[in-house]
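Lecture 7, part 2: worked example. A protein chain together with guanosine-5'-diphosphate.
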Amino acid sequence: SVSIGIVGLPNVGKSTLFNALTKAQNAESANYAFCTIEPNKAVVPVPDKRIEKLAELVNPQRVQHSTVDFVDIAGLVAGASKGEGLGNKFLANIRETQAILHVVRCFVDDDVVHVSGSVDPLRDIEVIETELILADVQALENRVERMKKQLKGDKTLAPKIAAAEALLEHLNQGALAATYPDMDNKAVREVLDELRLITAKNMIYCANVDEDGLGEDNEYVTAVRSLAEERGAEFVKISARMEEELVGLEDEEYAEFLESYGVTEAGLEKIIRTGFHTLGLISYFTAGVKEVRAWTIHDGDKAPQAAGVIHTDFERGFIRAEVISYDHYVEHGSEAKCRAEGVLRVEGKEYVVKDGDVVHFLFNV
Ligand code: GDP
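Predicted complex, written out as structure tokens:
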């Protein structure tokens, strides 16, 4: 499954945020009994009002949301790429993830030691990103060396070596792989896919503030927000400590609480949704009396692939899909009504499933 790795310097609030995410997982744990609980992984339901609305209409025995996996990646300190601290294990864990949530300290608190002595988010980001770049440089250097040895026997490696060397030069200037200008180059893509370079992954910058930083941006938040914008990356502001205390509150209580801080947007929800979006994921729904459920697919997946998420047999034996858009479903209130009103569509194997489609698959076994 796809996952997001949480990184950041020590004492910036990573564990606090991870605890909040874990509590969000456990708040729904009755529905997630199938998940093996791993200490550094939270399988977090993606808040989605649509699925609650569908449940209201269908009144099923069970409701299941889509989920996003967050992995707490501890141990990144300056020097990690040289194997200091938990360096190597850290790097192995982070390679497995598809996106990175970079938590940055934007709160001032003399009781919480800052590893570099002062709050300075841009410097902190640079420290972390330098380590990530160095790790990628190492991976690339190793690969180039190996490919050069193989080149005698396999001349087709030449363009890949050239691509890897060009990427290396880019990284050696202190830049992230994600900003490499020639991303569409086939050899470059191959190298990126094989090595799963860390700095080529999608990045979400997460400014962690005190409760009173939630309203207007402080100077630290402004700096991080601008950097994210410059890079075309996602940005979220959150108070990890507050989220940890608030997780599990009823929606109304929670909203009131946010309002009292002049905030309209729940941070944890935003992180989860941004994560889901950053991974290129969407949800379609199945709505039956046993279960109303969101299924996670990639934006652009066709009907048979989408069916395969439920069961591989559904993909192999795919015949057709009966599809109702979410809006139509809610407007008419049931599958039968939608069928009668002529808004249920029959779609074939080339159909690209849309976010919010309510789908019924027909298949051969
Ligand atoms: P990690 O090392 O990045 O995992 O950081 P932790 O989550 O363990 O947080 C380090 C310390 O900072 C803990 O004592 C937290 O309670 C505290 N902390 C986390 N978020 C905030 C915050 O928004 N404001 C303040 N004042 N302290 C925070």
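Residues 8, 10-16, 107, 109, 112, 208-210, 239-241 surround guanosine-5'-diphosphate (CB under 6 Å). The two ends are 25 Å apart (CA to CA). Keep this in mind for problem set question 3.
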